[in-house]
Amino acid sequence: MIRIRAAAAAAACALLLAACGSGGGGADASGDGPASVKVSVIPIVDVAPIYLGRQQGFFAEQGLKLELASAQGGAAIVPAVVSGQVDFGFSNYTSLILARSKGLPLKVVAPGAGSTGVKGRDFGGVVVKTGSPVRSAKDLAGKRVAVNTLNNINDTTVRASIRAAGGDAENVRFTELAFPDMLAALDKGNVDAVQVVEPFLTTALKNGGRLVASNYVDTAPDLTVAGYFTSQKTAAAKPELVKRFAAAMRKSLGYAADNPDAVRKVLGTYTKIDPALTSSLTLPTYPAQVNAASLKTLSALAVQDGLIKTAPDVKDLLP
Amino acid sequence: MTSAVATGSGREGRRRRPVPAWALGLAGLACLMAVAEAAPRAGLVKERFLPPFSAMVSALAGQAGTPVFWRALLETLRGWAIGLAVAMAAGVVLGILIGGVPFVRAALASTIEFLRPIPSVALIPLAVLLYGTEMRSTLLLVVYASFWQILVQVLYGVQDVDPIARETARSYRFGPLSQVRTVIWPTALPYVVTGFRLGAAVALILEITGELVIGSPGLGRQIAVAQGSGAVASMYALVIVVGLVGVVVNVLARATERRVLRWHPSIRREVVS
């Protein structure tokens, strides 16, 4: 499935040239009544604040009628944003850096989720089976590690973890597996380690898995992992809409940061995570600002690991 | 009827009555359920990754109590029906037009053979570009995939028309419309119905695939959400629902076939035997 998505993403990039800006997204911010704003999100823990913000009326306060379109991943979100089918999308920042360096006109408008910065208590990490000889990130050299998308944020940050622990980051064999398939693959011994995020991290640890690295923590202090973006065209054509969305989003993120219990509760409205599990999940942080320094780190890692030749100017990506 | 057979003769009476097909079908399903229940319990597969059948059923019961589930089911059925209807209309009209004119048919044969094997899922980026993650992008895949199934059947059907009958109709100066009505349609109808049956199944598969991969609303998206939430039992519960929908779709297609073609020798034979 992931491979189909990757192929789809590649083809989408080619097709974007032919799109010529057809299709209209949400209405403009001008005029009476609330402006409708379409946002494409992935149903994961990271996007809880936007659901909370809608519940709390933060978007209505800004005169926005929020319409959330749930997509399965970046392969569907990026083309939808660039073609103007939706106004905003959610993605991890390495994907945006890669897209930007390939000339896709994307702009970050608000942060989404960040690392907790606490080793061993982050919302993502590398897990091995009980009894595995791998004790730390350094031991991952020469091992098979599953990540959900090759050549993206998860393999670059795992490599950063290995380097930080003094290991050989060149000598790791990454395999692409969807998060839901990883624990079974680890259990069967098809891979030696898996990089998972919540709710699979807590599930893995509950079933006897051992955490060997907190790859987001090892990469940069307060790494902003993912956030909301728009196309340059939307940013230029609807600056008022972008401003109001960013304001509502910041308020939602602040509320989510202050009310972790509300976050856990709202998860039940758009995911099917077992309610017994939600109380023990490690939530990401919901920062109010994009950490520009951590974006630069991700960009440098993408260059170092050969994902792109030259790093795009992070300033172009930021609002 | 059974008593008549029983009293026919001693030997007839002793012969075991054949087990009806539906009972065999149910027995097959029961076996499948038993295996699905026993395999995880016996430790052949880990319960964490493939829960026993009873756990799936109880997850299904939980799902059935939520409006989200019913809305998703309705969205899937709606997408399937609209997609199939569009493909059906386009396939039949174009099939008769293309098939009816030998020149056009020869000219388009290679194009059709080129477009037909393109997997619908390869068009996902195009669909997302045009319609985002709405229902319409999945609809595009559904229509594309089932249209070829129907078109090709209609083409076969039109080709099967007796040339003498066509010539006769022509020499009696039947207009094109009455030629279609009186000569082409009766011959092509069994093929059209076969196309409908094949298209109905393909449309359902593509509807679910589109929802799964793109994230347009429906059961497929619910499966993807359950996967992403690590809710294994719920995921399999929804997969079971998709299977059941498939069975219903097939039964409906067969019933339509029997109804529309009740005059046709193939169906009459089926009824007699």
UniProtKB/TrEMBL annotation, chain A:
Keywords: Signal. This is NitT/TauT family transport system substrate-binding protein. Pfam families: NMT1. It is found in: Periplasm. It comes from Actinomadura citrea. InterPro entries: Solute-binding_3/MltF_N, SsuA/THI5. It comes from the Bacteria. Residues 1-29 form the signal peptide. Transmembrane segments: none annotated. Residues 36-259 form the Solute-binding protein family 3/N-terminal domain. PANTHER family: ALIPHATIC SULFONATES-BINDING PROTEIN-RELATED, TAURINE-BINDING PERIPLASMIC PROTEIN. Belongs to the bacterial solute-binding protein SsuA/TauA family. One of its GO terms (cellular component) is periplasmic space.
TrEMBL record, chain B:
Residues 73-253 form the ABC transmembrane type-1 domain. Gene3D superfamilies: MetI-like (1.10.3720.10). One of its GO terms (biological process) is transmembrane transport. The keyword Disulfide bond does not apply. It holds the Pfam family BPD_transp_1. It is found in: Cell membrane. The chain crosses the membrane at residues 54-73, 80-108, 114-132, 139-158, 235-253. Keywords: Cell membrane, Membrane, Transmembrane, Transmembrane helix, Transport. It is a multi-pass membrane protein. GO terms for cellular component: plasma membrane. The keyword Ribonucleoprotein does not apply. Its main location: membrane. It comes from the Bacteria. Belongs to the binding-protein-dependent transport system permease family. This is ABC-type nitrate/sulfonate/bicarbonate transport system permease component. It comes from Actinomadura citrea.
